[in-house]
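Researcher: Good morning. I'm working through a list of sequences from a screen, and I'd like to move beyond sequence-only analysis. For each chain I'm collecting a predicted structure so we can compare shapes side by side. This is the next one on the list. No need for commentary yet; just the structure.
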Amino acid sequence: MRMSRWLRRARLGALAVAVSLGVACTSPTLPLPPPAQPTVSIGSEPNTFHLKSEKGAMPNALIVVVNRNETLPRTQRVTGTIADDQGSWDLEVFATTGDVVDISQEDGTTRSPVTTITLK
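Model: Good morning. C-alpha cells for this chain:
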C-alpha cells in the first residue's frame, strides 16, 4: 500500500516537472532588435565605405551587410563581421555613393529585422 502511494506521488511529481518544462519551452522569446544605424565614412580603398557602430548591436552578434546594388559582383555584395563583447563593430563594404545597404544582426539562430541606409 505504501509503495503504491509513493509511486503515485512520484508520477504526479514527474508529470508536474514535465508540464512546467513544456510550458517554459513554448514561451515566446523577445525578438532581436535591428542594429543601430552606423556612422559612415569613405573607405580606405576606392569604391568602399567604412561602417562603424559603437555598442549598436548585441554583444558578439554576427553583423551582415548586404548591398542592394546588383551591378556589383556577388562576392562584393555581402560583407560581415562579429561585434565585440560590447556590441561594437566596424567594417568596409564595396559600394558607390547612392548604394543602399541592409544591415542585420544574428544571435544564434535568430536574425533581426534590417537597418537600411543609403551610402553618401
